[in-house]
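ok here's TATA-binding protein interacting (TIP20) domain-containing protein:
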Amino acid sequence: MASISYQIANLLDKMTSSDKDFRFMATNDLMAELQKDSIKLDDDTERKVVKMLLKLLEDKNGEVQNLAVRCLGPLVHKIKPPQLDIIVDSLCSNMESKDERTRDVSSIALKTVLGELPGSLNANSINCVKRVLPRLTEGLVNDEKMGSGVKLEILDILAQIISRFGRVFDMNFEDIEDALFVQFEKDRQALRKRATTALSFLMDVVDNERYDRVVKRILSACDVNTHKVGYLRTYVLITSAICRASSPRFAHFLPQFVPKFIRFCEDNDDDELREACLQAFETFIFRCTKDMNSFLDDIVKATSAFLTHDPNYSYDDIDENSIENGSTMETDSADEEDDDADQDEYSDDDDMSWKVRRAAAKCIEAIVTYRTDRLVENYSTLGTLLISRFKEREDNVKHDIFQAYIALLKQTKMILPDSYTHHAIINDTALTQHFTLEKFRNFVRDELSNEQREVFQVLEKQVAQLVRAIHRQLKQKNLKTREHCFILLTHLLKALPGALTGYFHLLLPGIQSTLTDRVSDSNMKIHTLHFVAMALNTHEPKTLQPHVPILLPLVTNSVQDSFYKVSAEALVVICSIIRVLRPLDGQGGDFDYSPYILSIYESICSKLKITDIDQEVKEKTITAMGLMIATFGDKLANKYTECLPLLLDRLRNEMTRQVTVKALALIVSGPLKVDLSLIISDVLPLLAEFLRKNQRTLRISSLNLLSLLVSRYSQGGLENAGLLRVVKEVPNLINEQDLQVAQLSLKLISDVITAYPDQISDSLSTLLAAVVKLTQSSLLQGKTLGAVLCLLISLVKSPLPNKPTFEQLLDQLSKAVYDQQQLHRQAYISIAKSVATVALAYKDIGKAKSLVNELKITLNNPQISDSVHLFAILTLGELGRIYSAVYDGKDMKPETLITNAFNANSEEIKTAASYALGSLAVGNLEKYLPYLLKEINEQPKRQYLLLHALKEVIASESQEGSSNEVFKTRVDEIWQVLVKHCDSAEEGNRNIAAECLGKLCLIDSSKFLNKLLECVKSNSARMRATAVIAVRFMIVDQPLAVDDHLKQLMSEFLLDTVRDQDLNVRRAAIVTLNSAAHNKPKLIRECLTQLLSSLYSETSVKPELVHEVEMGPFKHTVDEGLDLRKAAFECMYTLIEHCLDRVDIFVYMDNVENGLKDQHDIKLLTFLMLIRLAQLCPTQVAQRVDRFCDLIKPQLLLKPKQNAVKQDNDKQDELKRSAVRTVLTLRRIPHHDRSSKMTELIEIIKGSPELLGMLEAIERDNSSRNIGGSDAPMETE
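and the structure:
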């Protein structure tokens, strides 16, 4: 402490020097000391520092003064309240000084000090603000003491104080209000503007009574100053600012303001007043979208008129609606060029009409952005108007008009899922071709509603007029205009792929001039190339092939551009051109592409040879070369010695090996069967090395390439040490740590065993050990299990000299079972399937029957453990499913053996027996289905197990393509059995019956759907619930024949059940609705509007369902509606993911608010919904951000109870973490910084070490995953 005081004393001494440089350096050193966290000042040093800095504020040197002001910031955090009071008192007094310079410096210093005060909850800060506020208010109304410059600073300080401390204590708002209204009468515009900002902050914190009084005061001022245009403009701007700051309270005043402002526009000729009114309309639409519905027609009429408001200029009359393919479209006459030149030269500094037109364009953009339900009407009226105004003479206005039309296109694009739009079209476009124009058109025809299809029809009709207008604009000299043209065209193709069919030739001159013009900047070239790539990928190849001779030289020149982003974008276009010239699907027709192959190859190869280029360009070049060889390899055989070694070099490079592996995979998988023998001996060892790397994506890519190579060279060509190295590395990848890698590894080994059995012998024992260990995993199922079985089949069928015998292989697989190892139930299923598969693969009926006899002996031996019995039962079932011939013969009665296992004490054995009996019946329906139905009718105590067995049969038969005649003859009997169990008292029986009924409807929808509908109308609540659940099992993500029939009946299944009196029926209906919305939204799209009100009604707590239960001395609250509310919120989450266009966002957000007041689990769900809403509808969420902040704040301030257990604390932490994550997402929505409540939440988080730690952890996690929030869909039932 003594050393610090000594250092500061030295600095203070130097500050008194007559040399300004000494004073400057000493002040700078003091600031550096004050910024250190460790420094602490004693009382005497505090006084000296404060006194000296206040003195330096009057220094004659401006730089010293500025540095002294900056020093006050960190000093605020180091001194005690008495010294802080001295500073603010001194600064307030100096602001009244007669010296203008002193006043200005003191006002800036005071602003710095108050800005550095701790948060609004700090008592010292509040006392300081209370001390300074009256003097600020007095200074505003005292024109003699305070000049305009100081008042500007005071207004800034006042706005800052109100926003931070306005809700903490009573600031005598009446005096502040009067002082601010005085400023509105001043002539200086800057004063009025800053007073407007301060008043908007004030209106956000005052009570409702004062709020209403101020708004009425503004209305009165508008009426009084009708003929004073300057004052009117000020009050219109004030109204906009208040609406931005407190839109929920302002909304009910809209009927008084909007008609008044429309009259102002019509009755006054002042362009700046009209601009202010139009800006106000834009704010009203942005902040109070729902409340503005009744005024939209009038506003559209006004904005449409003012968009063309240009009294000082006469535009040429041009028929914008006609389009010709002749020379009139492609070239302009000399007169038109002269007209364009005249436009460029036109200028009038006194003409303010351009501000009106710009404000009108922005207002139209707001209308089309926030009224998505009027898309067709917007295209018909506003779309046509905007296109006609592309001829606007002022470039700034023109660009806003472009943005307004782009907003229309963006709303259209939101109708389409990502797979049909930009992401699928451009992302990794060289390697994949998911998008096709035919696929898009089929989607629009089959998946969209009539209203949605009408949007695309209206847009398609408008394309001709749009291209005509853009064609003219591409001839303008203004670079920004041309850039906006290409951005708009790109958005057009995102919204309507294929839109430029027949018009692309009209845009070629613009593309050509942009890419060759020396004055074109990089951004413009990038946007142009991006548009060209989009066009090439969204049109039929035949329509664009004639334009390749013009496009190709432009693009190849751009590949050599010195700016890496231009070069990278050009390479993307090169890939698109390659696909257009010779589509891999053979849809290119008879176009002669041979003249272009060499120039494309040389362009790519020259770039590939350069090593010191940007990483993005390297990757795009490698990708382009891979596509080039895959597409034109048969024409480039003489170039292999040049290009393949280059790819091999890139494969050896750590930075480019990943993309090179993918490029080689593309070459190998292509239809041309390109010969890679030149590099194959070097590639295999490298791929073997890649399998040892920790980089997962590299492993997966390498395994895919290896599988392709083995398939490609299945007749020989890979016999070398490299393949042996690969085989040795693969067993290490066959484990449960990464099942996708394990699956690919198993597939690779299966292919190697089939094609190169001699290469596998040395690693066979290690490989088998890895496979056997994997079969014992609880995670093994699905495709990975299928890969294990395929490997076993390949192994048995392969002519390997040292492969194990039938008995040895079975012993290895089942050793863990007989050794009594602790295994998961799934492991027994995997081992049983493996054993049965081996028996089938050997095709030795004698050995297979011998195996069955051993299993029968095992089952009949009560001394053997349950785990071995479990394995035996499952194996018998699997044998029956895939190798039913083993049970031929009179002595073989596996059904009796399995059914007897129902008497076992172990529940696992009973369940396994049920599964085995179903598997047995699947393998031989004629023999075992009658037995199964007979058992169901005769064994009432075994219904649950027998229904499970029946479920296996129905699930197998419901798969597409199955049509067993035996099953068809019994299907009516099965239906009756299942319907009887729909009303069972056992919930388990009802659930199985529901699944089986759903699967039966998949088999014959025309027969059973109407019968199921009868069950929905049953008097039994259990029957109704079961029937609705059955509908859920018909809804899968793949298209099925039942879809069309189900779509017609969906409303009948759901409309009544979602309003049912029974709680369980309503929950079943909502869960089914959720499933439909997630998997096949088209099924419920037409009836969703009718269902939403019932769904929303389930989101609030119903007191009649909440009651207390006494449990000994304790009372426990039971909420019977909790599960139903969870289902409702889960369904709501799904709806915004898949049916956003059918949801009224503002009604939806009302119900989200209900969830934030509910129980813990529902709060967590609601936070997820709010995060997703902020990502999908940021502008709408911005209008409610204050209300959401009020509901989030209590979650952040939660305190643990004294008697809380660890589980309660964990739940509370989880809730806080979700709240912090939500705040982090809300910070990304537009204009979040205008919300004082949002600022308060951020202060709370930053002021709490616990919450700050959560925030930092979430940001790190988001950064590592490179996402801004949770985009993954929530898993629901």
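+1. The first strand starts at residue 1106 and ends at 1111.
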